[in-house]
Design goal:
Elements (H helix, E strand, L loop, with lengths): L1 H37 L2 E5 L2 E4 H15 L5 H27 L6 H14 L6 H8 L4 H22 L7 H13 L4 E11 L6 H18 L2 H8 L10 E6 L5 H7 L11 E2 L3 E12 L9 E2 L1 E7 L6 H17 L3 H11 L4 E3 L3 E2 L5 H8 L10 E2 L3 E7 L10 H31 L2 E3 L2
Antiparallel strand pairs: 1-2, 1-13, 3-4, 3-6, 5-6, 7-10, 8-9, 8-12, 11-12
Helix pairs in contact: 2-3, 3-6, 3-8, 4-6, 7-14
């Protein structure tokens, strides 16, 4: 009997040991499979690998930064664009390394501070929010490092190669004159390129999804920074002022009737899809200062008929005291604010020629930061202060040429940066294993 019990106990122990062994083996197999899946190489850019973990983390990062819904559907929709972005980042970092460009921690901290200010976040809050969203700090820092490295590459490699000739400046001035009076647009852009990495169908799906998110949230800058492939993506897609003759016909046709602040539907251009926001409109003109703007602060002391003679004398005395004692625009504004409402303040920038001749004569001889003598008007007594330099002289031809030169330089930098990225793609060995 005793032997039977001992045999039964040994059988039970053997069964338990067997079950435990199988469980442990299965657990280790699953964990190993998960580890292999996470570290699976999904793309190789020259000699740099991109893993499933890299892609997963960057998709989550894109969702958080752009404020997109965290759903599997969204993740699948943005996967091609995020992978393209990762590939481009590797190419940019490799180009920077070949040119001995490095990025230090101070530069990364400064860039993070800028992003936090742009998103109304407290210092350190951005990293904390990302970590709460399951995004490793190292992944985000790598992303920031890539952005900074590319900015430094443009500044140290591309910009020095750009030479704007006097002939180009003169030709641009002729074009501006030829287009004077025609529409000019301050534009922002989200651009999705048609290239060898991202086919037309993927690009169309990506741009349509971005457009739907814009309609819901109007978070244009954040989506542009994360998804746009345009040269100005890091600036929220802001292109600045663009003349109508510089735009593709399809784009001009789509935006010509849009109001300020309106966003176009996706536009298929020659090299990709564009979503355009019209920030402002004006007519093309040469840069000049025949109508220079100046900043003026004023202190106004009312002298209406309801005031008693003693009260009027007090107003005049107060204006005289400010004219004799106060120095500098900061103190002038502070003094006005301390006096309370109704005493004036800083005026918007105004054109000198729009002022009355009486005020022009006073301000023309007035140093910046020095109050004028009290000036009697129909409304009462005014003390004026010039808060920005003023010159009666309009811009010289040399100043106009310098401004046009800067415009051409910025345009050329954007073009050359985009061209260089395309060249990097063509010359790279890119193996996608999805």
């Amino acid at each position: 009997m005793t032997n039977a019990k001992e045999i039964l106990q040994k059988i039970i122990q053997l069964l338990v040991a067997t079950i435990y062994f199988v469980f442990v083996c299965n657990f280790l197999f699953v964990q190993n499979a998960k580890s292999e899946d996470i570290m699976k190489v999904i793309a190789v850019v020259n000699d740099a690998a991109i893993t499933s973990f890299d892609l997963s983390q960057r998709i989550n990062l894109a969702i958080v930064i752009a404020g997109l819904p965290n759903t599997n559907e969204i993740k699948q929709q943005i996967l091609p664009r995020v992978l393209t972005s990762l590939i481009e980042e590797r190419l940019k970092l490799q180009a920077a390394q070949r040119n001995s460009i490095t990025v230090n921690s101070i530069e990364i901290d400064r860039r993070i501070e800028i992003i936090e200010r742009q998103n109304n976040l407290q210092r350190g809050e951005l990293i904390s929010n990302l970590q709460n969203g399951g995004i490793q700090e190292s992944i985000f820092l790598s992303h920031i490092r890539g952005l900074i490295a590319w900015d430094k590459f443009i500044g140290s490699v591309i910009v020095p190669q750009i030479l704007i000739t006097p002939e180009e400046i003169n030709e641009e001035i002729k074009l501006i004159k030829a287009n004077e009076g025609k529409p000019e647009f301050d534009l922002s852009e989200i651009f999705i390129s048609l290239n060898a990495i991202e086919n037309t169908g993927q690009a169309e799906n990506t741009v349509n999804h971005i457009y739907n998110e814009l309609q819901n949230k109007q978070n244009f800058e954040r989506l542009a920074r994360e998804f746009s492939q345009g040269a100005m993506a890091t600036q929220g897609g802001h292109l600045g002022w663009v003349r109508s003759n510089m735009l593709e016909h399809k784009i001009l046709e789509a935006i010509i009737s849009l109001e300020n602040g309106a966003i176009s539907e996706p536009i298929l251009g020659q090299s990709g899809y564009h979503i355009i926001r019209v920030n402002n409109k004006r007519t093309t003109r040469l840069p000049d200062s025949n109508k220079p703007k100046i900043k003026i602060a004023q202190a106004l002391f009312s002298m209406n008929e309801n005031l008693l003679p003693d009260e009027q004398d007090n107003q005049i005395q107060l204006a005289t005291t400010i004219s004799e004692v106060v120095s500098g625009c900061v103190d002038f504004i502070q003094t006005i604010e301390e006096l309370g409402t109704g005493y004036g303040g800083m005026l918007e920038e105004i054109r000198f020629k729009d002022l009355s001749e009486k005020y022009q004569n006073i301000l023309a001889e007035l140093p910046v930061g020095k109050p004028s003598v009290p000036i009697k008007t129909d409304e009462g007594v005014i003390v004026l202060m010039l808060c920005s330099p003023y010159s009666k002289q309009s811009k010289s031809a040399e100043e106009i040429e310098n401004k046009v030169k800067i415009l051409l330089q910025n345009r050329t930098i954007n073009f050359e940066a985009s061209r260089f990225i395309r060249q990097l793609r063509r010359n790279a060995l890119i193996d996608i294993r999805l």
